[in-house]
Amino acid sequence: GTPLPQGSGRGVAAVADFGSFAALVAQVRVGAGGDLRVERLVCAADCGRVVNPNIVRQQLEGGIHKADALAPPPKTPSRVRRPSSAGRCRRSVALPPA
């Protein structure tokens, strides 16, 4: 890959459960004030035979939005939660071949 700009980084999460595998890569940037901004998310899943690809896409995107909404806002105590703005990052969802 290409080197990331100064102040940017990537994180990877992967899970295998109930016979399915999923992974998510997040590219984030630290702003001048120390705030984090999600620049790009890429999610992939191998869930076996897919009957309706739209449902798989909806499940993956829904999980991403739920995790984003539950994440604590910057500079806020972790006991305080608030929904964050949807669509603040670009999402790419890779579906397995049908």
Q: TL;DR of this structure?
A:
18% of the residues lie in helices and 38% in strands. It is an alpha+beta fold and 98 residues long.
Give me some keywords for this one.
alpha+beta, four-stranded mixed beta sheet, 1 helix, 4 strands, 18% helix
Give a structural overview:
It contains one helix and four strands. About 18% of the residues have low confidence. The longest helix has 18 residues. The protein is 18% helix and 38% strand. Strands 1-2-3-4 form a four-stranded mixed β-sheet, covered by helices on one side. The radius of gyration is 15 Å and the shape is elongated. Strand 3, helix 1 and strand 4 form a beta-alpha-beta unit. The protein is α+β, with helices and mostly antiparallel strands and 98 residues long.
